[in-house]
Amino acid sequence: MDFDERPYQVEKTEYSSKYKLELWETAFGLQKTDGLVPSEYMVEQAQAHIDGKTSYQEIEKNVKAYYSTNESEEQKRFEEADISSLRISQILAEEGFSLSPVTLLNYHKRLFYGIESFRYPVGQYRKENITKAEPVLNGKSVEYANATMIADNLAYDFDIEKNRDYSGMNKHDIANQVMKFVSGIWQTYPFREGNTRTSAVFLIKYLRHMGFEVNNKPFKNNSKFFRDALVLSNAATTSKYRTDEYLNKFVDNLLFDGKHELVIKIFKDKKD
Question: Which of 194, 211, 206, 207 is nearest to 105 (CA)?
Fold first, then answer.
């Protein structure tokens, strides 16, 4: 019997300083979707990692120790941004991806597990029906999925995506379809909190899996725009605000060197 003698290769764990900087900038930028910013301490830890002086594991240990001895509300307000930024950077640095709802659950759990200030279930679908007034919808809410339908909705969407034939599509159409798929995941709003950051990580990983090179600058500089674009794309079908224009501009900047100004104009004179 013949055996394949080619050895398995250990996954790469060290990257260039430039690449690590991009990952951290993306992670920090995504915190803006929830109005969060990292602490100065976390920025220093990230720089040490970029300079090759420390590892993700060492940073995790340092940050946990830091927050266990700094329990003031002033310090705790940075905890979620610091720890979830670390986990975002770490996940984005990893190879491998699986197109599955389990992956989505895993990303959410990894991003927010053990964060004391994140007072919501992690790696679990929400059990409440929710609404949120959105400024870009003039105070109205996206119609999120009913909590009892989340698992079924995701199973249906993932099944369609797994069986989608991309062979006859050009790169722009593929990219827009992937974004549409992830936008649908976001509209389902599987988790009580942390959906945009989880969806963004999933999107980046999926796009890379599909062979795209992702420009991290839009997430670094325009993550709030990304969330607002998702809101507008998933407004009620009868809403005059509903549009994919901004989401498509984001994709073009993200993948195809687009130069769109990522600014959303709110037309408050419109009435639903």
Answer: 194
pTM value > 0.90:
yes
Inter-CA distances, 270 with 23, 84, 136, 225, 244, Å: 39, 37, 11, 20, 17
Tokens for 38?
A: 């990292």
User: Which of the following CATH numbers is that of domain 100-272: 1.10.3290.10, 3.40.630.30, 1.10.3720.10, 3.90.850.10?
Assistant: 1.10.3290.10
Q: Is the dihedral of CA 146, 83, 30, 102 positive or negative?
A: negative
What's the pLDDT tens digit per position in 7-36?
544 445 668 999 999 999 999 999 999 999
Q: For residues 265 and 143, give the distance between their C-alpha atoms in angstroms, rounded to a whole number.
A: 21
* Domain limits, the chain: 14-95, 100-272
Q: What is the pLDDT of residue 53?
A: 96
